[in-house]
């Protein structure tokens, strides 16, 4: 994960856009907490600068 | 294997310059197994360049392909069409691969994406160490299979030197003294008598000191008799 974050920084993106959480499939509350933490993190960082600001399509519509 | 490391993305961007169409060429051999320039790394470098150049405001058309071996013409012929369509080729092969592409496609600009480091092996996952210096006159038969040319910092033939301390090299305490390793191995194998013979100065003519090297095998050449 450190390598990926270094790569994101070299590209010019915020390294904290990617993180890895370890947990078992039975840890539902930990999963929810991690998802909420990551969603808040991404919301603070804002949309990816790679995305066209005028493009309002969803990821699935773009095939991503 | 030949061991290499990727250049930084900044350096790669500088090498690519103003080219619009970039082809990243991986190599399926040595640099694949040392995780520097195989198909996976070629795809990652290509994606990174697409994103980085887009963020820089000059998004480039970056694609990738991997040759089984960049150092042989027939494998380069298989990717000739992709190379033809590129403004610049970023080779993730070793220095031989870069030169093979430049030689085989004389009208194509080729730049290196790796720093070729040495010939060695993985001593553990994620760690590679030098083992051979390609001196052209192998002495491993005298040293128990441990190379004093590549592994002794001074390439001594009659070691160890006075800088061997506790089995480590004075150049860097992280480096094991090659001559300590040689002594220990010959001792364990009951062959310490090999060390009683003083080795004469090495003839470095077979190494790089004799200039660029070449091997010709007439028994293998297809047109040897015609010449």
Helicity range of chain B: 25-40%
In helices, the fraction of residues of chain A equals 40-55%
Low-confidence stretches of chain B: none
Average pLDDT over all residues of chain A: 90
- The biggest beta sheet of chain B, please? 4 strands, parallel
Strand content of chain B: 15-25%
Total DSSP E strands of chain A: 0
Q: Can you give the mean pLDDT of chain B? A: 96
Characteristic terms for this protein:
heterodimer, A: 64 residues, mainly alpha, 3 helices, 0% strand, globular, B: 227 residues, alpha/beta, 8 helices, elongated
List the helices and strands and how they pair.
The complex is a heterodimer of chains A (64) and B (227).
Chain A: H1 2-11, H2 28-45, H3 59-62
Chain B: E1 2-6, H1 9-16, E2 21-27, H2 30-33, H3 39-55, E3 61-67, H4 73-77, H5 80-84, E4 88-91, H6 95-104, E5 109-112, E6 114-124, E7 127-132, H7 148-151, H8 178-188
Parallel strand pairs in B: 2-3, 2-4, 4-5
Antiparallel strand pairs in B: 1-6, 6-7
Give an overview in words.
Chain A is an all-alpha fold and 64 residues long. Chain A contains three helices and no strands. Chain A has helices at 2-11, 28-45, 59-62. The radius of gyration of chain A is 14 Å and the shape is globular. The mean pLDDT of chain A is 90. With 227 residues, chain B is an alpha/beta fold. Helix content of chain B is 28%, strand content 19%. Chain B has helices at residues 9-16, 30-33, 39-55, 73-77, 80-84, 95-104, 148-151, 178-188, and strands at 2-6, 21-27, 61-67, 88-91, 109-112, 114-124, 127-132. In chain B, the strands form two sheets. Chain B has a four-stranded parallel sheet with strand order 3-2-4-5, sandwiched between helices. In chain B, helix 6 (95-104) links the parallel strand 4 and strand 5 (109-112). Chain B is elongated. Chain B starts with a strand and ends in a 39-residue tail after the last helix. The model of chain B has no long low-confidence stretch (mean pLDDT 96). The A-B interface holds A 7, 10-13, 49-50 and B 8-10, 44, 48, 51-52, 54-56.
């Amino acid at each position: 994960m450190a390598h990926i974050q270094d790569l994101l920084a070299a590209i010019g993106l915020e390294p904290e856009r990617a993180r890895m959480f370890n947990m078992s499939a039975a840890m539902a509350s930990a999963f929810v907490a991690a998802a909420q933490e990551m969603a808040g993190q991404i919301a603070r960082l804002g949309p990816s600068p790679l995305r066209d600001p005028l493009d309002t399509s969803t990821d699935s519509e773009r095939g991503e | 294997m030949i061991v290499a490391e990727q250049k930084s993305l900044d350096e790669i961007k500088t090498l690519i310059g103003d080219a619009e169409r970039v082809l990243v060429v991986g190599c399926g051999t040595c640099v694949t197994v040392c995780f520097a320039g195989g198909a996976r790394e070629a795809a990652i470098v290509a994606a990174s360049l697409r994103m980085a150049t887009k963020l820089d405001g000059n998004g480039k058309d970056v694609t990738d392909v991997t040759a089984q071996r960049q150092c042989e013409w027939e494998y380069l012929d298989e990717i000739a069409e992709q190379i033809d369509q590129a403004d610049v080729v970023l080779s993730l092969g070793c220095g031989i691969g870069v030169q093979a592409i430049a030689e085989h496609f004389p009208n194509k600009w080729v730049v290196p994406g790796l720093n070729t480091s040495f010939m060695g092996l993985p001593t553990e996952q994620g760690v590679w160490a030098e083992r051979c210096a390609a001196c052209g006159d192998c002495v491993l038969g005298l040293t128990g299979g441990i190379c004093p040319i590549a592994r002794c910092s001074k390439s001594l033939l009659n070691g160890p030197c006075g800088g061997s301390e506790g089995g480590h090299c004075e150049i860097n305490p992280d480096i094991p003294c090659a001559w300590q390793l040689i002594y220990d191995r010959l001792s364990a194998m009951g062959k310490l008598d090999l060390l009683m013979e003083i080795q004469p100065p090495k003839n470095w003519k077979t190494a790089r000191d004799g200039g660029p090297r070449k091997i010709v095998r007439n028994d293998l050449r297809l047109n040897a008799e015609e010449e």
